[in-house]
Specification:
Layout lengths: L3 H4 L4 E5 H12 L6 H14 L7 E7 L2 E6 H4 L5 H10 L7 E11 L2 E9 L1 H11 L5 E6 L4 E4 L9 H7 L2 E7 L4 H14 L7 H9 L7
Length: 215
């Protein structure tokens, strides 16, 4: 596995997560800034959650919108999060700003945590290499019917499935054993400890200068 300090060159600790992400979004996302409201709801909900899988997120700012998913979802092949991250990796012309977010607490509506800016393509390469394949995939259709398929059956466009059962609303990977995924994410968490601390104001200022000036 690639060292985390090779993918992440700096970290910003104990910051106001929503305030900082909004500032980044306003610098880089020109259209569909309303997407950030969905991100904010996810982040607040996860900050209050008791599930440790909700505490580490991947956030993406694009010229037209933003995305936010847990790493627990992203590192499961055939998940919606994995598919979206893959799709945007293929949009080479997009200027992307992305980061891993660790949620550490919430008090009086202020969400605190740590932020790790990452190169999007480096991150996607890492995900592509290490994401785990599920044993089965649970598919929910628009009519709310749910069926279980082999991963090989839902690869690609799923045309035969759609023609038989209708439009797909959601795909959910199913694992008989989640321990390997737990270990994978724990190794990543441990690796982030060695990432050097940076100055958040300097980073925000570098974004204003444009993609070739980001520090």
């Amino acid at each position: 596995m690639k060292r985390m300090d090779a993918i992440m060159t700096r970290k910003f600790e104990n910051i106001d997560i929503l305030h900082v992400l909004r500032r980044i979004m306003e610098q880089n996302t020109a259209h569909y800034q309303m997407d950030f409201q969905y991100d904010e709801n996810i982040i607040r909900k996860n900050a209050l959650s008791d599930d440790k899988h909700d505490k580490t997120l991947f956030w993406l700012s694009r010229p037209c919108g933003t995305n936010c998913y847990t790493e627990w979802e992203i590192f499961q092949k055939d998940s919606w999060a994995y598919t979206v991250i893959q799709h945007h990796a293929e949009q080479e012309s997009e200027h992307k700003l992305s980061c891993v977010v660790e949620l550490t607490g919430i008090k009086k509506d202020l969400v605190r945590g740590n932020l790790y800016p990452v190169d999007y393509m480096e991150y996607w390469t890492d995900v592509q290499k290490h994401a785990l394949s599920p044993d089965m995939v649970e598919v929910t259709f628009e009519n709310k019917e749910t069926r279980i398929f082999l991963p090989s059956e839902v690869d690609g466009s799923c045309l035969w499935i759609k023609s038989r059962y209708g439009p797909i609303e959601q795909k959910k990977p199913v694992f008989s054993d989640t321990v390997p995924l737990e270990r994978l994410l724990e190794v990543r968490k441990t690796g982030r400890v060695s990432v050097p601390a940076g100055n958040i104001e300097r980073y925000i200022h570098s974004i204003r200068k444009g993609p070739n000036k980001i520090q």
